[in-house]
């Protein structure tokens, strides 16, 4: 696997475009009104970009992209080093680890990777929230979050699957 320092100009341009799309998708998602107000339940549209990056570049370059996205969104929206930042970071970290493992195993389609990522994100967020609030009562919320994670993860995975050929064609 290549190191992050060995980026070609083409890779750098594509990663920059993917980063810009991920940040915009996340900020737009923050602004969308949701018909059902459930804390922690989001569409996860920026996760499409993470899946695309994992499939195109592998884990090391995707980790670079994901780290930049997390910090940029925090600077533009939630604030750095707030409880919301750490809860989101916990979700993103667990999601990334499991999606990267799923990609390496080559057993999962992009849709499967999306479902794994959405479920892991919710588990990671809930774990950090339980640590911060020092209570395990939040665990009762997990089944509802996982029920919501399956269709949202499926949709982000399918979006990534159908976007990949267009990206391959142009880059």
Short précis:
The protein is built from 6 helices and no strands. The protein has about 170 residues and is mainly α.
Can you count the beta strands?
Answer: 0
Which sequence of SSEs, written as H and E, runs from N to C? HHHHHH
Structural class: mainly alpha
Question: Helix share of residues?
Answer: over 70%
As a percent range, the share of strand residues is under 5%
Main sheet: strands, sense, barrel: none
Rg for CA atoms? 16 Å
Measure the end-to-end span: 20 Å
Please tell me the overall pLDDT.
91
**What low-confidence regions span 5 or more consecutive residues with pLDDT below 50?**
none
Shape descriptor: globular
Tally of separate helices: 6
What does this structure look like?
With 171 residues, the chain is mainly alpha-helical. It has six helices and no strands. The protein has helices at 9-31, 46-57, 59-78, 83-105, 110-133, 142-170. Helix 1 runs parallel beside helix 3 (59-78), helix 2 packs across helix 5 (110-133) and helix 3 runs antiparallel to helix 4. It is globular and about 45 Å long. The mean pLDDT is 91.
Sequence-ordered SSE layout with sheet pairings:
Layout lengths: L8 H23 L14 H12 L1 H20 L4 H23 L4 H24 L8 H29 L1
């Amino acid at each position: 696997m290549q190191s992050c320092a060995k980026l070609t100009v083409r890779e750098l341009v594509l990663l920059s475009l993917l980063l810009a799309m991920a940040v915009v998708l996340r900020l737009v998602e923050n602004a969308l009104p949701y018909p059902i107000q459930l804390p922690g339940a989001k569409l996860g549209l920026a996760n499409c970009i993470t899946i695309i990056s994992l499939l195109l570049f592998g884990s090391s370059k995707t980790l670079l992209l994901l780290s930049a996205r997390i910090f940029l969104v925090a600077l533009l929206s939630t604030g750095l080093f707030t409880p919301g930042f750490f809860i989101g970071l916990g979700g993103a970290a667990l999601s990334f680890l499991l999606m990267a493992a799923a990609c390496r195993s080559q057993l999962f389609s992009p849709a499967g990777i999306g479902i794994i990522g959405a479920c892991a994100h919710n588990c990671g967020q809930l774990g950090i929230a339980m640590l911060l609030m020092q209570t395990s009562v939040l665990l009762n919320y997990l089944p509802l979050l996982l029920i919501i994670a399956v269709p949202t993860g499926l949709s982000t995975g399918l979006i990534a699957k159908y976007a990949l050929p267009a990206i391959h064609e142009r880059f």
